[in-house]
Amino acid sequence: MTDLLPVDVSNLGLAGCAIAIALGGFLRGFLGFGAALLMVPILSSILTPAVGLVIMYLVEVPTVLYLMPPALNKGNVKIVFPMILALLVTIPIGFYFVVSLDPEIIRILISVMVILMVALLASGWKPKGEINLLTMILGGGFSGLVNGAAGVGGPPFVTVLMARNDDAEITRSNIIITMGCMSLLTTLTQVFYGMMTLNLVIVSIFAFPIYIGFTWLGATYFNKSGNEYFRKAALLMLISIAVITIIINI
Fold first, then answer.
1. What does the alpha-carbon distance between residue 208 and residue 46 come to, in Å, rounded to a whole number?
2. Collapsed DSSP state (helix, strand, coil) of residue 233
3. How far apart are CA 93 and CA 87, in angstroms?
4. Which of 40, 86, 136, 179 is most buried per CB count within 10 Å?
5. Alpha-helix runs per DSSP H in 130-167
C-alpha cells in the first residue's frame, strides 16, 4: 500500500490514516457532516495537503452518488443553483493556493480553517434578514474558496441554507445536492491541476470500505442512541485535532 503513495509513510502513519478515515466516516454517518473537518488535517499532516485532499474526496464520491438521487427528487435545484455556480468559479481559485504555496503553510491554513468552520457550526450563527440571491452567491463563493484551499468548505453554505427555514426535508436535500456538486467540482479541479493519479485512486478504493462501514455505524448509533452531548464532543474533538496539527507544523 505504501508503494502506491507519492510520499514515504511508515506503517504507523498508514494506521493513523486508516483511523482518521474510520472516524471521519463515523462523523459523516452520525452528524451528516464533519468527515472532511477531521480527515483533511490528519491526512495532510501524515501525507501532504494535496494527497490528503485527493483521498478525502475520492472516498466520498460513492457516498455522494448514493445520496444524490433521492435528494434531487426532494430538494429544489433552482434554489441552490446560484450557490453551485459560485462554487464552480471559486473552487479552482482556492486550489491555486494548494498547488502554489509551501505544504507546511497549507497544513497550518487547513487547521486554522477547520477551527473557524467548527466555531461557525458550534455558534449556531445565522445570516440576518432575508436570504436573497446575493447571500446565496456569497455563501457558495466563500465555501468554494475554503474548500479549494483547505477542503472544509461545507459549513458556510450549510449555514446559509439552514437560515432559509425551509422544510427540514427540503433543507437536508438541498444541502446534499450542494455538497454533492461541491465534491464533484472539487474532484474535477484536482484532475485539472494534475493532483489525481491512478495510484491514489487505487488507495482510495482500498480505503472506501473503511469509510462507508463506519458511516453506517455512525448512522446506526444516531438512530439508536444519538444525543446532543456527542455532537458537542465531536465538535470539541475536531477543534482539538486542528490545534494539535497547528502545533506540530509550527
1. 18
2. helix
3. 10
4. 40
5. 133-150, 154-163
Give the count of beta carbons closer than 10 Å to the beta carbon of residue 81. Answer: 15
Q: Residue 243 has which C-alpha cell?
A: 490545534
Average pLDDT over residues 197-225: 87
Task: Give the Cα separation of 15 and 20 in Å (integer).
Answer: 9
Q: Give the model's pLDDT for residue 10.
A: 87
Domain ranges of the chain: 7-249
Distance CA 131, CA 188 (A): 29
Q: Alpha carbon 146 to chain centroid distance?
A: 10
Single pTM value for the model: 0.81
**3-class DSSP state of 132:** coil
C-alpha 74/C-alpha 51 separation (Å) is 34
Residue whose cell numbers read 502554489: 100
Residue 197 near residue 6, CB atoms below 8 Å? yes
pLDDT-based confidence at 82, cuts 50/70/90? Answer: very high
What 8-state DSSP symbol labels residue 193?
A: T
Overall average pLDDT of the 166-180 stretch? 85
- Chain centroid offset of residue 87 CA: 14
Dist. CA 93–CA 221, nearest whole Å: 38
